[in-house]
Amino acid sequence: MTEDTPVADLVASGQDYEDEGVPGVDALQIQERYGEEAANRLREDGNSQFVDVSLDGKFASFLADPWVEQDAVKEVKAMFPNNECQVLILGAGFGGLLYAIRMVEAGIRPEDIRILDSAGGFGGTWYWNRYPGLSCDIESYSYLPLLEETGYIPRHRYSQGEEIREYANLLATKWGVADSGVFQTQAQKLVWDERSKEWQVELSQRRSGEEPRTLDVRAQFVVASNGVLNWPKLPGVPGILDYQGDIFHSSRWNYALTGGSPSDPSLTRLEGKRVAIVGTGATAIQIVPQLARWAKHVYVVQRTPASLGDRQQRETNEDWFRKNVASSKGWQRERLRNFHQHFTLDQPPAINLCDDEWTRAPALVGLAGNPAGPKSIEEIPAYIEKLHEIDLPRQQGLRKHVESVVHDAAVAEKLKAWYPSWCKRPLFHDEYLSTFNRSNVTLVDTDGKGLDRLTADSIVAGDQTYPVDIIVLATGFRAPFIGSPAEKANVSIVGRGGKSMSEEWARSGPSTLHGVLDANSPNLFLSGPWQASNSPNYAFTLDFLAKHSAHILSEAKRRAMGKRFVVSVTKEATDEWAMQVLMHSFPGAAILGCTPGYFNVEGELARAPPERQMIMARSGVWGHGIESFCKTVETWYEKNDMQGIEVQT
């Protein structure tokens, strides 16, 4: 097989991996290798091995906003006439925009909505991340929300970052909320006022070059939609602040240093420079080929190899799109349903509308949730064995793909991923692997340990020192499943009876209905993923929860008959929902034995005591998958009684 052999063919050939030149390797041996690799990467410090830059002032420089257009950021006081608003949304990414849009559709006036973000504009992760090579790993026809409503045709199969950010601004303009953005501003504290039936909110605006401005406002309703990948983290490596060269996080790309721009990846200022990039995840695989084109030398620092398939990027033919994609009313929801239905151990749909590496990887049910999964603890071992059985051909094919592309056998071996498909978000790229054939690219494999330290001019891994001029930290973000929505927003939330959301959730886990209403927090709408569900296409999850929250708010408003009202959830309803989440949680057990990463909180889930694991099971996502969750909520609609919801006037 050659470098041009399609990944799909290599995966198919992996079915016969014992006959393909891997003597003595069988399914059991591969599973044992998986376990050995996972154990090798476990660290006692778990998730605390990282530095959360938003919580440690010593690293504040890594949070500086390189994109803000200061003249476009309105002063916070001017945005709150009478120091109040009806709906305050925390987060201006796709989640915040979709909640605003669905609220507008439910009858809330755009001028009564305020959308808060520490960024200088809309876009969320697509505002911050503008690194060279950036594109989405979900096909654009599914990922970009409301395509049917806007009539927009994405330019590529996988949209590039600048297009996605522009599309976010298009949505804000089309639904009239472009002037609702309150930027470079964070909520510091939310306190529920039972007497006035509203939230008291402390705001702080930090406009570049100015002293912070604070403002106390009131909001009848609050939406917490702060995303899952928003606060950068750094490796807790000694010497980061001692390094004298240039260093930045990938979500704050320094084009003044590298040359180029978000729309032009000509990194001309890297010529003659030695660059280290730390990380080999979804971000790094897109950046590495861009760096290699321009830098004198690139050192790619790897803890855990990426499990990598082809992306097969292409431009969108508009005639093809209209005829084959947007050909009938409701096409985008049907396309997403088809996408989700391929994450099942049962018979998938005969037609694969997306036909991508996601939908050709059935074992990803271990990540996406599975209605055909185990229904009890006793069924879990057989289920995991079944996942391995259907996954091994794919993973062996991907490992063969590495061999077929990377010329140096020793480097190829280090780039092979020894873990199942469901342990990490699968990655797709058309150039990453071949970049290691360049003479100016060196893989610095740390065997799961990470860098040992930085010196004034070098990175150090084991007994090797590599002098570098620039370090790019493509080390990701705060783990999305740690803490409550308060932690996601870096805000204190104090609900009824003076109860702190952070303290309550840390003690006993969330108490919500459908993941959108918290028992102690009236008039506060959440955006998951706790006690809700999750699609690999997270924008779909956000939109479904936004529509669900808008439905609840609209129905509560109707019942209040023009009076000021409070919408909350009963304890009986939250207890019942927690039990349902628990009883649907068994398919999620597959993640416990995985190599450390986001999904198992760097291995901490498996090490938690049994009583804590029980709390985590009732706190997590709906284990039967997103379509099952949607059907459960829609069945709740059909009863037309708002069961579990209280509306008080």
Automatic annotation (TrEMBL):
Keywords of this entry: FAD, Flavoprotein, NADP, Oxidoreductase
KW NADP (keyword) present: yes
- In Pfam terms, one family for this protein is Pyr_redox_2
What cofactor does its activity depend on?
Answer: FAD
Question: Which residues does the UniProt record annotate as the domain FAD/NAD(P)-binding?
Answer: 86-323
Q: Which residues cross the membrane?
A: none
Q: Where is the signal peptide?
A: none
> Superkingdom of the source?
Eukaryota
Supply one GO molecular-function term: oxidoreductase activity
Which InterPro entries does the protein's record reference?
A: FAD-binding_Monooxygenases (IPR050775), FAD/NAD-bd_sf (IPR036188), FAD/NAD-binding_dom (IPR023753)
- Identify its protein family: Belongs to the FAD-binding monooxygenase family.
**Annotated protein name in UniProt:** FAD/NAD(P)-binding domain-containing protein
Q: State the species of origin.
A: Karstenula rhodostoma CBS 690.94
Lineage runs:
Eukaryota, Fungi, Dikarya, Ascomycota, Pezizomycotina
